[in-house]
Amino acid sequence: MSLNDGKVGAAIAVADMARAVEFYEGKLGLRSNGDDPDGGRTYECGGGTTLHVFPSPLAQASGATAAGWVVEDVEGTVDELAANGVTFEQFGDGPFATDEKGLARIGDQVGAWVKDPDGNVLGISNQ
Q1: In what order do the strands lie in the sheet with 121-125?
Q2: 0.85 exceeded by pTM
Q3: Tens digits of per-residue pLDDT, 83-96?
Q4: Based on the number of CB atoms within 10 Å of its own CB, is 74 exposed (0-12), middle (13-18) or buried (19 or more)?
């Protein structure tokens, strides 16, 4: 079996699991079945995909997008998350310049980015 045939999911290391749970569940609204054996939590998302968040003493944000969701209505999702207290990244120039909501529009693609408490960048887009 090649990697092309395997499922893939994102894994994000965090320094403080309690703080991460508050963000991923409390603000983003993700649901898990509780702690995994490694002390992390796995969040099932659309299409059988998963996001695994786990504690690590090596947790360090890269500055690049660590995981991303594809949704039909980016603006509606941003509005819903902002109502939960999520703050979206603002980019003033370049191809990812955002509006006051944090939405970047590149042709038909719409995207927005948020950072978790450890600075991991998470993306939301329609493609």
Answers
A1: 65-70, 121-125, 109-115, 104-106
A2: yes
A3: 999 999 999 988 88
A4: buried
